[in-house]
Amino acid sequence: MKKLLIIISIVALSFSVRAQKVWTLEECVDYAMEHNLTIVQSVISQNSAEYQYKASKNAWLPTISADASQSFGFGQSPSYNGVYVSDNSASLSFGISANMPLFNGLNLYHQTKASRLEMNASKKDLEAAKYDLKLLIMSYYMQVVFNKELKAIAEKQLALTEEQHSKTQQLYELGKVAESNVYESAAQVATAKSTLVQAENSLILSILDIVQALELESIEDFNVVSPDSFEIEDLTLPSQEATYDFAVEHQPKMEAANLRLEKSYSEVKASKSSWYPSLSLFAGYSNGYYKYFSNDYNTPFDEQLQNNGRTSFGVSLRVPVFNAMQTKYRVEQTKLSIQNQELAISNTKKELKKEIQQAYYNALAAEQKYKAADETYQSADIAYQYSSESFDAGRTTLLELNESKNRLFKSESEMLQAKYEYLYRVEVLNFYNQ
Predict the structure, then answer these.
(1) pLDDT tens digits for range 389-403
(2) How big is the CA angle at 118 (ends 112 and 120), to the nearest 5 degrees?
(3) How far apart are CA 108 and CA 247, in angstroms?
(4) CA–CA separation, 163 vs 403, rounded Å?
(5) Closest CA to 286 of 77, 73, 97
(6) Which stretch of DSSP H or E encloses residue 69?
(7) Considering the entire predicted model, what is its pTM?
(8) d(CA 328, CA 339)
(9) Strands (E), 268-366
(10) Within its chain, how far is the Cα of 388 from the centroid?
């Protein structure tokens, strides 16, 4: 029985360890890259573009087809030698043919190039989608970390308040404070418990956000690792000018836009190819068997196969003369796509500059906010220590002590919020330099 209890305890402990999975930021990002539906859709789009490129590239290969037909004729019927006879007949014909383009105004070349550029652009789209997802996961992750620490502060606040209530109860029993102080400290305990419940609810909601982004089934036993502590001096803000210059050259969405502009130029050239002659090589083999119902003209099947076979090959030239102005309008339409893509690039650059400017000034403001919040917290912490000692010595009222404690709690919460906001803002700005 004792051994059984030991085994059950070990199994329960191992299950508890497995259930309490603690995620790092890198693990969250890696998992999201594999399971997020937006990323999966981007991968499908990329695969579709790759197949389109392969289809365009293989259009240079010859096309081969085989055919067979069975027909019945009544009255005048053709014979194998081309002469019509007065008899009902049945005929079987079959053949194989091949065709290969030799020149079509470089249409295949430009279409293949356009497909390759679209394939590369779709890869950049996937990188951009991963970039956006990584920022989103990092934002959710930092919110969870912040709410975890906020919950820890609320727990500490509750412990201090309960300790303070216990001291007040003792002082009342010794006749050193009025009974109203006991009720006041009890009310502070209730308020601290309510604050803790709010912190726990905020933590659950922030966990729900990141769990849904990760496409996980449940928020149960989900936990994250807090990032390593950092110092303000360790973080540096790159200049927004250098960041913008680097981003214009290396950001995936900029590279995708430039690739699609090149694709538009290739599509214009492909449309113009319809004005040029096309040249193709063809070859074929055909044979047939003819049978007449009266049997007057029939020859053996194997003899007909020997005599009716026909092989052909040659070169076909097609010269466009007039196609109702369709080529002209198609060329003009593809030229408009170049203008649209040039405008898209300009708009993407404008949005990119706006994003970098916002990221830079948000990081700059977060840095100043963190420094000010940290100074306020340090001052509030010292003030609370003095108030606590003064209250124990009877020189400070309970109301003054509570006010000092509430200022400490508020300043610590604001400091933590500013801390993680600054860390997040710096990381956002650094993303544009990757």
Answers:
(1) 887 777 777 777 778
(2) 105
(3) 34
(4) 16
(5) 97
(6) strand 63-73
(7) 0.76
(8) 17
(9) 278-292, 310-318
(10) 52
